[in-house]
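User: Hey, quick favor. My workstation is busy. Could you predict this chain's structure for me?
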Amino acid sequence: MDKETYANLLEPWHQAMWVLLFVAVALGIIILVAYWIRYVAASDYKSKYDLASASEVKSLLRSQYALAAGVLFVVNTTYAETVSLSPIWFFIRLFIGMCLATLYGYIALLVFKYYYPKPLHKKLEKLRYSPRTNPETGNRMKLLSEDEEDAYLDEGMQAEENAFSVDYDVWIDTQTGATHIEKYKGHLSALECDRCGFQTLKLEKEEIVKEATSYSDGEIQKEYHCSYCGRIKRKTVKLTQRIDKDASSGKLIEDPLAYDKRIDLVRLEIHGKNGEIKNYDFQNLDQARHFLEEFDLEKVAEEEEVS
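Assistant: No problem, here it is.
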């Protein structure tokens, strides 16, 4: 490629980079503004809580990824005179831009994965426990304690709380007796029962029906029991050959839970210093990780004594 042709190609390239830069920045701003509009427009504290817990980290991270793309584009508009000397400099600049954009995106991921959950948790706590107002009378409502709220929960709701899969908050207008019940995710995982509809279906036992071999996958039968309606549900799940091979060979898997997308259930077994053993089942890896981040053995013991 001669210098004249190369110079003619650089000009539209730089123009395209500027256009893409503005697009990336605009996209990042749009993602942020769209989320905050939804947040501000949420009608009450509970709606804001649900939106923030489900979408805030995702929205903020996506906006940062858009800005990371903007870093790539802006770098590829710099040092135009040096780049015009040789195509080699063009590819060097492109490589540097990709490295910087990747670094920016990775730092953003680390921030929102390891630092941001703590301030987000404080924000959610504030939203959850901010005083409620009775929309009909305007009276300030009182949040009932765990012992007091049972009188206002039906048997199914109490079963969900006893399974630690759901946590209910009961707010009461002490002047009129009107109540408002809010539903939150518990710190343990339970499946929704297909009979009664409550999240009280938990794994009771499992049995290997067919051992995995070097040539075929095995099978394990799981039996679930609903603590509310007594429903018993059995499900057969494959024992993947891939994981079985690695375990038998002694190969260390850095993250065995995420090693195979076909994993249907995650079980954690926690041993306390006093000899107590607690088993917890989760529907996916994210739930297990979230549980471990907030797990407190003493708190769980106290909740079990109360229930």
